[in-house]
Amino acid sequence: MRVAIVGCGLIGQKRARALDGDARLVAVADLDPRRAAALAAQHVGCAVETDPTACVRRRDVDLVIVSTINHALAPLTLAAVEAGKHVLVEKPAARSAEELEPVLAAARQRGVVVKVGFNHRFHPALLQARRLVDEGAVGPLMYVRGRYGHGGRLGYEQEWRANRELSGGGELLDQGVHLIDLARWFLGEFTHVHGIIGTYFWPMPVEDNGFLALQTATGRIAWLHASCTEWKNLFCLEIYGRDGKLQIDGLGGSYGVERLSFYRMLPQMGPPETTIWEYPGEDRSWQAEFADFRRSLAGEPAWGATLEDGRAALRIVAETYRLNAPQGLRRAS
Fold first, then answer.
1. Cα 62 from Cα 141, distance rounded (Å)
2. How many H helices and E strands in the chain?
3. Coil, strand or helix: which one is 237?
4. How many C-beta atoms lie closer than 10 Å to residue 251's C-beta?
5. Which residues fall within 8 angstroms of residue 98, CB to CB, at 6 or more apart?
6. In contact, 19 and 290? CB cutoff 8 Å
7. Is there a contact between 121 and 127 (Cβ–Cβ < 8 Å)?
8. By percentage, how much of the chain surpasses pLDDT 70?
9. pTM score
10. Counting CB atoms within 10 angstroms of each CB, which of 27, 100, 192, 228 has the fewest?
11. What is the pLDDT of residues 39-92, one digit of tens each?
12. Buried b or exposed e, range 219-249, using 16+ CB within 10 angstroms
């Protein structure tokens, strides 16, 4: 499998390291030619393209990984699909659901596989949690509570994420889509959206906090908070069933050791039976996601996020922005 990567920053580099088996990086492109050259130098025979669109259309490429900033995700994915390439596009796949519609139509027409890089599905604690849910270990699900955040860095308000034209939105669109995707993965489609966005610390025109209450048609609830005023990096997802609770903490690195706690309710209730799994070491979600992508190419069952999943998450973000449009961003006094 011959692979091209467009966008050679931190995520593009992680995607390159995740290539497995006979997957071979044959071409790269980046707005910074030095960054592209540095990545290409790590892969024998890899070419550096100055034109990202030419890169995704190369005849010697089977699969394109698009890991650019948000405003270029959908156009480059569309160009790759129209050239008959399979694509793994980094989340959120576009700045808006509307930007994804031509990509969806083209993918159906060309019969290619396009997946959205929601790699959090492939963290081992989340994979194990999904298996336990599917096995009925916690009983019928009731609700999910999730928190995800970081504290930014000096100059954060000057980065592309703070520029709506480039990013499409703020923290709700950045880390928040991971929470939305995971909540949908466990609970199903949400039919009711209520949300509040606010800019409390960073002097920027997009939100630094997003708060969501989502409800399915059957009454299941997701209560989510994404923040870039989380001064100690945090990831916590709690999944509540009638017979127990699953809690995922940490993602490795600055988010702390990844851990899954299973609290199984006993017939007599009281303190639950507790089982804890810990997953120290390197984050291997990128490798697991790429292996899953290859299974989808082979027509095998796969858990990777589809374009439809990406569109659903973007629609929830857009609805939250719409609900907040009359008063704009809430700012602390």
1. 40
2. 11, 16
3. strand
4. 23
5. none
6. yes
7. yes
8. 98
9. 0.96
10. 192
11. 999 999 999 999 999 999 999 999 999 999 999 999 999 999 999 999 999 999
12. ebbbbbbbbbbbeeebbbbbbbbeebbbbbb
